[in-house]
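Translate structure to sequence.
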């Protein structure tokens, strides 16, 4: 079918030329080549390159976040106290609850670090489901188009995978106990009364935010820094985009 399309596209201008004494052959050939991907990597090649880029960026993101201090020592993604509680944190420290406040913050980040490795298989599944149309959109999209693709394709799976890990981790490191102690203080009572706040959901959400942030940074490197294109396929696909 591909050969037939090319044949028709290249034969048509010859007939047109005989009738009009014009020769649009070069222009039409160029259009045919562009339409069929002849001027650059083919669609399959582009999809393979995108999948490789996604694999590289997700592997690095998971490795960076899914280790001790991967969240806690990275100021860009460190999980802070919930905003409403953050505003009274100084007062809690003044009344002798500094240790509980610090422990809560450290524990939330430890839970995120333990949950992050579970994202690896979910990301692999998202890559295998990527279509050629997805690949084209990602290739010509913004600096974090691939990361946005993962957000849309993986958020539900990540939420389901992270939730039990985060909950168990926070139980193990005493986060829940520390949180309950803090909530008993009148200064934090308003947050405790908020029915729409859930500590597990807060940490799961922040874990995904941090993971996608790091992934986005890795994607930007591949798109803009030739040194980050560690394979021939990545250099071929992304080099042509520049």
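Result:
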């Amino acid at each position: 079918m591909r050969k037939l399309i090319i044949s028709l596209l290249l034969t048509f201008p010859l007939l047109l030329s005989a009738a009009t004494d014009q020769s649009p052959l070069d222009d039409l050939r160029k259009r045919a080549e562009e339409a069929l991907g002849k001027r650059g990597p083919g669609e399959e090649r582009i999809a393979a390159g995108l999948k490789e880029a996604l694999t590289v960026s997700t592997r690095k993101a998971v490795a960076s976040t899914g280790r001790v201090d991967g969240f806690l020592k990275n100021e860009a993604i460190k999980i802070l106290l919930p905003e409403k509680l953050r505003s009274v944190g100084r007062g809690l420290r003044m009344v002798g609850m500094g240790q509980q406040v610090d422990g809560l913050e450290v524990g939330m980040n430890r839970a995120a670090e333990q949950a992050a490795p579970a994202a690896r298989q979910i990301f692999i599944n998202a890559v295998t489901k990527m279509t050629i149309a997805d690949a084209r959109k990602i290739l010509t999209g913004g600096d974090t188009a691939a990361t946005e693709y993962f957000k849309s394709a993986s958020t539900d799976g990540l939420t389901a995978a992270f939730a039990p890990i985060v909950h168990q981790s926070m139980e193990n490191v005493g986060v829940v106990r520390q949180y309950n102690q803090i909530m008993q203080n009148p200064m934090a009572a308003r947050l405790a009364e908020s029915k729409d706040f859930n500590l597990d959901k807060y940490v799961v959400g922040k874990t995904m935010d941090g993971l996608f942030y790091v992934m986005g940074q890795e994607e930007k490197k591949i798109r803009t820094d030739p040194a980050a294109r560690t394979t021939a396929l990545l250099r071929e696909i992304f080099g042509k985009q520049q």
